[in-house]
Design brief:
The protein contains 13 helices and 24 strands. The protein is of the alpha/beta class and 608 residues long. The strands form five sheets. Strands 14, 15, 16, 17, 18, 19, 22, 23 and 24 form a nine-stranded mixed sheet that branches. Helix 4 packs parallel to helix 7 and helix 5 packs across helix 9. It is elongated and about 90 Å long. It starts with 30 loop residues before the first strand and ends in a 6-residue tail after the last helix. The structure holds beta-D-glucopyranose. The site of beta-D-glucopyranose has 11 residues, from loops. Its EC number is 3.2.1.-.
């Protein structure tokens, strides 16, 4: 894993508005509702049979209580919250603004007294999906006694009952295996990986965090069945899911999120070497059949249908096709290859389509971090931010990757970027100019931390076509920056560099440094819904697992030696030729690195 920054020393600002994000849609899921209006003229039962993130299905039964109709009927209603009909059946649907009109099918224009028809449709919704309150049949408003429909919210069952007096609403934000909730982390525990937990607990002082949830990385095909890796080890995906189901069943709320990382693209980690993978640049066929299909077939087992399954999809992949390709000075040949052959886009869209088709899966895609993607500009060569969002949207429509299959995005995965800098902002003036323009650490980056970045990226992704209800995850496993070197106040220095360097909590040499960073600490403990638009703080990178070997180590995992993990290295263009800042003596990426684990605990912020 690696995260490359893009160094841009230039005097042209790409002012990026940090848009504030409207509150996420509440819509836990389906207030499966029902309504009905009956009248001397007609009665309607409107039944939502199924609802998921952004979409729903409904049946509308209209009963004619008046004179027999011949020669055609028309049913109309208004949606109150911008819902739209996508596809209908047993009637001809049209919509103009909020008004929906359903006409009889050509073969069924008659509707006798007491007779019913039930056209149905799939629709989309955003924010909320209230049931229409008024219907008209051939222009006559259906009013009168109430026919109540209660819909259960399971995707597979629904029941309809008729009463005369009341409307029942069932709310199912915790419906196991049913329609998706808006934020899977709310009201749920998160899976504790027993393998990581054992390694952590075996460390002196490690029991303080050994019960924290971390993600399971499927970093090669053999990890699906389980392999002999010292960290990912013998538990394969099914074994993890069996254990997750036990953890879920033991909880009083009966809800558990299972997080795993999908990380095995052909030509993986194209801009670096430490996490090159097993599949060559052209092996997209194997990626699909031996990796994604296998994962999907295990995850879709009904034994696991009560879990909220969260795949974090392909760290570092798509943004590399923006920042590390020709004609940029930062270009790397392998990234040019992956852009030209399309296999990152093909693989990511395939994973999204395939996994997203499983009803209890919540896909989150990797979207980099602010120290890499945080430059927005109208000049393409200097724009990482907008171009990355566009690149991510380029998966939509391919291989079944539709926007309803993308639940959100993850930032800072396996990186060290702080959530926010408490003592200064990029707009602070030193010598009359904002430090954004004249401090090397900032170098015109529009952001000062992951919260600002994730919030703005979320808004941009929505603009680019993702659903407005997407949520963000932020990996806070190693971005705490506590310990003795953490500043306690804003600097009083009068040069921009000194001011920023003395004020900042992120103690790296440069934000492009990504490998086993010296001085880093554990960050915020995993937490649901910490801020608006942020679904959770999560520990995706399991603390204690190395980012890459400090020197060449022969291996059969496809991993190379990247000098960004070598503490003696003076850097390259992608980190502004700064020292790597890596800890010494690190093992291969993914392997247990006790010295790093100890340092992360020492420098934890909040402290342990
Ligand atoms: C490695 C993987 C490992 C993951 C989590 C990545 O950098 O390449 O092998 O599973 O980190 O530690």
């Amino acid at each position: 894993m690696s995260l490359r920054t893009f160094v841009r020393s230039r005097k042209l600002t790409g002012a990026l508005a940090v848009t504030s994000v409207a509150a996420l849609s509440v819509a836990g899921v389906v207030a499966s509702t029902a309504t009905a209006n009956a009248a001397p003229g007609c009665r309607v039962a409107y039944q939502i049979t199924n609802q998921w993130q952004g979409g729903f299905g409904a049946n509308v039964t209209v009963t004619n209580l008046g004179d027999a109709i011949s020669g055609g009927w028309t049913l109309e209603w208004d949606f109150a919250a911008g819902q739209t009909v996508q596809q209908g059946w047993s009637g001809t649907f049209s919509q103009s603004g909020s008004r929906v009109t359903v006409r009889n099918p050509s073969w069924a224009g008659n509707l006798g007294t007491g007779a019913s028809v039930t056209p149905g449709f799939n629709g989309s919704w955003n924010g909320s999906n209230p049931v229409p309150t008024s219907f008209r049949l051939n222009g006559t408003v259906c009013t009168g006694s109430v026919d109540t429909t209660t819909t259960t919210t399971s995707t597979t069952t629904s029941t309809t009952t008729s009463t005369t007096t009341s409307t029942t609403t069932t709310t199912t934000s915790n419906n196991p295996g049913g329609p998706k909730v808006d934020n899977p982390y709310v009201g749920a525990g998160v899976y504790v990986n027993p393998q990581w937990s054992r390694l952590a607990a075996a460390e002196s002082g490690g029991s303080r965090i050994a019960n924290q949830p971390t993600a399971v990385w499927l970093d090669r095909i053999s990890a699906i069945a389980g392999n002999s890796s010292p960290t990912t080890g013998s538990m394969g995906l099914a074994a993890h899911l069996d254990e997750a189901e036990k953890q879920r069943a033991a909880r009083s709320d009966g809800q558990l999120v299972f997080q795993f990382v999908v990380y095995n693209l052909p030509g993986r980690d194209c801009a670096a070497l430490a996490s090159n993978g097993e599949l060559g640049a052209t092996e997209i066929g194997r990626y699909k059949t031996e990796y994604i299909d296998k994962i999907a077939s295990i995850v879709s087992d009904s034994k696991y249908s009560k879990l909220r399954i969260v795949p974090i999809i392909e760290i570092d992949s798509l943004p590399n096709l923006v920042t590390n390709v020709s004609p940029r000075a930062t270009a790397v040949a392998n990234c040019d290859t992956m852009k030209a052959n399309g296999n990152y886009v093909e693989g990511v869209s395939y994973a999204v389509g395939k996994l997203g088709a499983i009803s209890n899966v919540y896909n989150y895609l990797d979207s980099g971090h602010h120290g890499w993607i945080g430059w927005g500009d109208t000049v393409p060569e200097y724009d990482n931010f907008y171009a990355s969002a566009k690149m991510m949207a380029s998966i939509l429509g391919k291989n079944g990757a539709t926007k309803d299959k993308v639940h959100g995005f993850a930032t800072n995965t396996a990186n060290y970027s702080a959530l926010e800098e408490p003592y200064w902002t990029v707009d602070d003036l030193v010598g009359g100019r904002p430090v954004k323009e004249n401090a090397k650490w900032v170098d015109w980056n529009d952001f000062n931390g992951e919260l600002g970045f994730a919030t703005a990226m979320r808004a941009e992704l929505v603009k680019q076509g993702f659903d407005s209800s997407i949520g963000m995850l932020i990996d806070t496993s190693r971005n705490g920056w506590g310990g003795p070197n953490r500043p306690t106040a804003k600097s009083t220095a009068t040069t921009a560099d000194a001011y920023v360097n003395e004020s900042r909590i992120d103690r790296r040499y440069q934000k492009g440094n990504w490998c086993n960073q010296s001085g880093a600490g554990l960050g915020e403990r995993p937490k649901a819904a910490p801020k608006t638009g942020i679904d959770a703080y999560v520990w995706i990178k399991p603390p204690g697992e190395s980012d890459g070997a400090a020197s060449e180590i022969p291996n059969d995992e496809g991993k190379g030696f990247d000098r960004m993990c070598d503490p003696t290295y003076g850097g390259n263009i992608r980190n502004g030729n700064n020292p790597s800042g890596a800890l010494a003596n690190a093992p291969l990426s993914g392997h247990w690195f006790s010295a790093q684990f100890q340092e992360l605990m020492r420098n934890a912020y909040p402290a342990l």
